[in-house]
Amino acid sequence: MRVDGEELVTEAGRTVAGLLLALGRVSWRTTRGGGRPRGVFCGIGVCHDCLVVVNGAADVRACQRLVRDGDDIRSQDGAELPA
Amino acid sequence: MSGPRVEGPVVVIGGGPAGMAAARAAARHGVRVLLVDSGAALGGQYHRQNSLAGRDRFALPPGVGHLPHTVVWALEPVPEGGHRVHLHTGPADGPGRTARSVATRALVLATGAYDRALPFPGWDLPGVYTAGAAQALAKGQGVRVGERVLVAGTGPFLLPVAASLTAAGAGVAGVLEAAEPVTAWLRRPADAVAGWRKSGELAGYGALLARHRIPYRRRTAVVAAHGTDRVEAVTTARLTSGWEIVPGSERRVEADAVCVGFGFVPQVETALAAGCALDGGFVAVDAAQATSVPGVFAAGELTGVGGAGPAAAEGEVAGVAAAKLLGARPAPPAAALRRVRAGRGFAAALARAYPVPDGWRTWLADDTLVCRCEEVPYGELRRAVREREALGVRAVKLVSRAGLGQCQGRVCGPNVACLTGLADAAAFARRPIASPVRLGELAEPPADPEPGT
Ligand SMILES: Cc1cc2nc3c(=O)[nH]c(=O)nc-3n(C[C@H](O)[C@H](O)[C@H](O)COP(=O)(O)OP(=O)(O)OC[C@H]3O[C@@H](n4cnc5c(N)ncnc54)[C@H](O)[C@@H]3O)c2cc1C
Ligand code: FES
After folding, report:
1. pLDDT the model gives residue B2
2. C-alpha–C-alpha distance, residues A45 and B350, integer Å
3. Mutate to test the interface with A, among B45, B71, B123, B137 (most CBs of A within 10 A)
4. What is the Å distance from ligand 1's center to B154 Cα?
5. Could you tell me which residues come within 8 angstroms of residue B376 by beta carbon, excluding any fewer than 6 positions away?
6. CA closest to B439 among chain A residues
7. Å from A19 to nearest chain B CA?
8. How far is ligand 2, taken at its centre, from the CA of residue B392, in Å?
9. What is the pLDDT of residues B97-139, one digit of tens each?
């Protein structure tokens, strides 16, 4: 799978948020208004702070999504329109 | 399904301690059950399974169908009685999930709760987590949120969080409890008794803190977080009994993460969609866990916060009641009913011992974000009320935009209600769509209207 263009191998069963945090990242999106960095806040799918782009689809909650083989994960900038 | 008659299995929404107990109890009395849960594995927040471990710890009896990775995104009353439950199964927030719906005459809601987080300057910096997030990441992913972490807020939940962080290898720089819990527990004899039953567990955490030399401070809170792109330090302060900062007590502490939790907020959207009455923000239930809506039962943190044990007891009672509604003839679940009564006592004592007084407002600056999604600062919210006279929930939302973002007011709702003096705190929880849906998914007709059990 890929994270922001970089190929990597990871264990099955990780959430996208778990993977990104394990890689040492604390933020992977910016807010629509102030462009502020955000990562995990609630950890259970409630706050929508952890949004990320997975396989071209924006607004995926990283704390809820399990990583799959071949996933292409990248940071999200503000509000991204559907591809 | 043919004709207007609504039937089908007991549908249980939520696979935590409450939902699992409800499903087991109903199945024991011979009715079919469909257990729907958004998680990959059963267990909910308390029995959170580590998704890296592979094997499932929980087995369900025959007669219970479990739909994992499935969210209930809408709930519709059926005119003839009962409800139609709309489901999406598939990878979270992905396009192309399978849409289905199932009708039921006996619905058990067990959707649990999430952390209440209070705003403070810098709380939107990466590195600030809810206590539950730290717990979920440690237990479910084996990830520690920082090397030097402060745990702050109120309530006994802070202690297992500190324990999990320690087990995950994080250094916990302190546990800050905003309340004065010992005095609070002792104020009423009944509360002291309820608290005493849990004291063994608490003593265990006390020993753990001592072993790891983790300071535990009462009447203290994290009142600001500092950093540019992430948390680098925090300000802690002593609090008065009303939670205002004691002048001169502020200290700057280096930390790369802070975990905050101020009790729990029930996830009431499916309950509100069904039209269930609330009481103090929680779903109101009778002794059989029946809500105000015929055929709808509620169990677990949705009805009050007392921990996993009472949640499971309520689930069992709800499952038995749901089976009875569908024609089973169960004996009253006497032991579970006793545990529910004790649990309610404990939950009430807990709520009294760890209140959230209004003084936290004084921690905020004009530019402190209150609504994280729409980036609404406190000053803006105040202007909406003072200058533009936004007095009701709708007006506050429309004028300030607080609560209109992606989380739909789940995080800021109770805080905005408190800051603007709104009477109806649950008003923010009235949302027609319980879980995010892509527009493409809305446009598609259900693939398989009746999931098998
Ligand atoms: C993040 C977090 C971590 C916690 N960790 C602990 C802990 O380690 N120790 C402890 O003692 N207590 C913990 N708690 C407290 C915990 O809430 C309770 O003790 C207990 O888990 C409550 O059980 P429940 O069955 O009521 O709800 P939960 O265990 O919360 O279960 C609710 C289930 O419903 C599902 N759900 C909700 N809405 C939908 C929907 N629309 N569609 C489909 N499924 C849905 C959720 O995914 C979840 O699996 C935690 C709470 C939170 C919020
Ligand atoms: S961290 Fe809150 S939704 Fe993912």
Report:
1. 30
2. 26
3. B137
4. 18
5. B369, B370, B400, B401, B402, B412
6. A82
7. 9
8. 28
9. 999 999 999 999 999 999 999 999 999 999 999 999 999 999 9
Q: Do B141 and A15 touch (CB under 8 A)?
A: yes
Q: Determine if ligand 1 sits within 6 Å of the CB of residue B153.
A: no
**The pLDDT value given to residue B199:** 74
Q: How far is A5 from chain B (nearest CA, A)?
A: 20
User: What is the 3-class SS of chain B, one letter each residue?
Assistant: CCCCCCCCCEEEECCCHHHHHHHHHHHHCCCCEEEECCCCCCCCCCCCCCCCCCCCCCCCCCCEEEECCEEEEEEEECCCCCEEEEEEECCCCCCCCEEEEEEECCEEECCCEEECCCCCCCCCCCCEEEHHHHHHHHHHHCCCCCCEEEEEEECCCHHHHHHHHHHCCCEEEEEEECCCHHHHHHHCHHHHHHHHHCHHHHHHHHHHHHHCCCCEEECEEEEEEECCCCCCEEEEEEECCCCCECCCCCEEEECCEEEEEECEEECCHHHHHCCCCEECCEECCCCCCECCCCCEEECHHHHCCCCHHHHHHHHHHHHHHHHHHCCCCCCCCHHHHHHHHHHHHHHHHHHHHCCCCHHHHHHCCCCCEEECCCCEEHHHHHHHHHCCCCCCHHHHHHHHCCCCCCCCCCCCHHHHHHHHCCCCHHHHHCCCCCCCCCHHHHHCCCCCCCCCC
What is the CA(B190)–ligand 2 centre distance, in A? 38
What mean pLDDT value characterizes chain B?
Answer: 90
Supply the pLDDT for residue B438.
Answer: 78
* Confidence tier at B4 by pLDDT (50, 70, 90): very low
The reply to whether residue B92 touches residue A61, judged by beta carbons under 8 angstroms, is yes
- Give the tens place of pLDDT for each residue, B80-95: 889 999 999 999 999 9
How many whole angstroms from B158 Cα to the centroid of ligand 2?
A: 19
Task: State which residue of chain A sits closest to B411, comparing Cα positions.
Answer: A47
Q: Are B70 and B88 in contact (CB under 8 A)?
A: yes
- Among partner residues A39, A44, A49, which is closest to B372 by beta-carbon distance? A49
**B230–A27 CB contact, under 8 Å:** yes
What integer pLDDT is reported at residue B368 of this predicted model?
Answer: 98
Tokens found for residue B80: 């003839």
Residue B450 has pLDDT above 80, yes or no: no
Is the C-beta atom of B235 inside 6 A of ligand 1? no
Nearest residue on chain A to B256, alpha-carbon basis: A26
Q: Which residue has the higher pLDDT, B107 or B185?
A: B107
What confidence score (pLDDT) does residue B391 get?
Answer: 75
Ligand 2, closest atom to CA A42? 2
Q: What percent of chain B has pLDDT over 90?
A: 72
Asked if pLDDT for residue B25 goes beyond 70, the answer is yes
Lowest mean pLDDT among A61-75, B40-54, B99-113: B40-54
